[in-house]
Amino acid sequence: MRILLLNPPSEYTIAEYADRSDSSERGSVEVEDFGLFPPLGLLYILASLKQKTPEHEVIFLDCIAEHIGHADLATRVAAYNPDVVGITSFTMALYDVCLAARTIRTICPHVHICLGGHHPIAFPFEAAELPEFDSIVVGEGEDSFPALVKALQGGTEITRITGVYTKESIQTYRQTHAADPRFLNSVTVVPAYIENIDLLPTPDRGVIGHLKYQSIVGTSNNLATIITSRGCPCQCTYCDVPFKLYRQRSVSSVADEIKECLEAGYTEIHFYDDLFNITPERVISFCDEIRRRGYKFTWDFRGRVNSVTRESLVSARQAGCRMISFGVETGSDEGLLQLRKNTTTEQIRRVFTWCRELGILTIADFMIGMPFEKSTDDVRRNVDFLLELDPDYAQFSILSLFPNTELFADAARLGLIEPTRWHEFARHPDREFYVDHWEEFFSIDELLKLQKESYRRFYLRPRYIWRSIFATSSWHEFTSKLYGALKLLKR
Fold first, then answer.
1. What distance in Å separates the CA atoms of residue 418 and residue 409, rounded to the nearest whole number?
2. What burial letters (b/e) apply to 174-183, b meaning 16+ CB within 10 Å?
3. How far apart are CA 261 and CA 231, in angstroms?
4. What's the distance, Cα to Cα, between the start and end of the chain in Å?
5. Which of 45, 76, 176, 399 is most buried, by CB atoms within 10 Å?
6. Domains and CATH numbers, the chain
7. Does the pLDDT at position 482 exceed 70?
8. Lowest mean pLDDT, pick from 77-86, 323-332, 436-445, 455-464
9. How far is CA 119 from CA 127, 170, 250, 339, 345, in A?
10. Burial of 305 per CB tally in 10 Å (0-12, 13-18, 19+)
């Protein structure tokens, strides 16, 4: 059989804000401005298919990286003529996902289309009912999708495969499945799940060797992404990571994958874990192995402040760590407590000071429009804290209320949002949908103005501009910074 793994076009991603008359107050920085990253989940599935079902031909297509829109997808599908299609998905891109599936069905009426990715685990019943798909995979598909392919080839029942559901089979789980502590309580059906992620084959990057992925805060357009763990045990009130049990790969397994990336010509690696630095000891052990093997490359990761020690930062810097992205989120201890960040402003200050002393660049991810920000003075006071930290980069997001999070439930109880609108969208995706925000004290237009003000307060400081110019070490960095500056100054 011919199997197509598809990262669909991204033309109709859910709007961050409802359409407003004052369109000049859109956000200064959009999601696509932050870079282009490989669809790592699909690359894992590809490697598993080649390992478990080598008799089949597998085709990989990343429409986003190859700039393939919906108008061109039909031509590609007609040339491939697949028997099975696996489409990855995020709820934010569900309209695109369904539109791609309709295109495929028009070209290949008898193809089996399976929906995977994040969306089915967030909305399993709604996903299974979508008419564009013959089946869905809820959870991690490295075992279940190859098993589905084998069942389709052999004509056996597919719904006996853990994590694979159809519109009919999923109905039996509506009232019978008990909550599993490994997952968010919103995961209401049995998902496909990999206990020992060391057993997974390395993502197959051979199919993306011709593509250039990069981060706007990176050093090159030769970026690889690696995941060293899965899941996040933290309980932040705004987050909907479905896998709560933390599973980590062995250090040697990660180092072996790094070796493959370096041999393939990659010079920069972004560790894409939800939580890379679960403990300082794990970071130190990883860095010791990198130095022992003599690997030389630039790398960065996303981490938490409360699991950082100076010793772990020293070790990371010695092993080539260039940058760390920290979820600072807000600037008061009361706010951090409400967000359940399990950290304090003093810890944050200390870690950012250590990074500056050691020469590790920092990104501070920050949010405004929190429930505890009741006036513009509250917002500006929190931003003052970020200016005091003086990170190398800052991202100011307006708090988004996503379903299956505690803050979403709080907003629904207060009548600030309609609690079922995401479920309705998941059943009937449309292009008019938009993300909810906490509008108890501010309108979205007011929040957008505060967001733009925050970006300008941070990035247009003369001291920051001069420091940024002298710290630029590559053409990619220069052009990325110039692009960002133009975005900020455009209006």
1. 10
2. eeeeeeeebb
3. 23
4. 53
5. 45
6. 2-195 (3.40.50.2300), 212-399+438-489 (3.80.30.20)
7. no
8. 455-464
9. 7, 15, 29, 24, 34
10. buried
Give every CB contact of residue 260 below 8 A, 6+ residues apart in sequence.
202, 205
What tokens appear for 181 in the block? 């502590």
Say if residue 487's pLDDT is above 70.
no
pLDDT at residue 26 in the model: 43
> What tens digit of pLDDT does each residue of 155-186 get?
999 999 999 999 999 988 765 566 788 888 88
Kindly report the backbone phi and psi dihedral angles of residue 410, in degrees, each rounded to the nearest multiple of 5, phi listed first: -60, -45
For 37-40, which contacts have Cβ atoms below 8 Å and span 24 or more sequence positions? 37/213, 37/215, 37/223, 37/225, 37/270, 37/272, 38/62, 38/65, 38/203, 38/205, 38/208, 38/211, 38/213, 38/224, 38/225, 39/7, 39/64, 39/88, 40/203, 40/225, 40/227, 40/272
pLDDT given at position 66: 94
Which of these, 316, 273, 266, lies nearest to 291 by C-alpha position?
316
Token duo for residue 417 = 């949002």
Tokens for 170, please give them: 């999923």
Mean pLDDT of the chain: 91
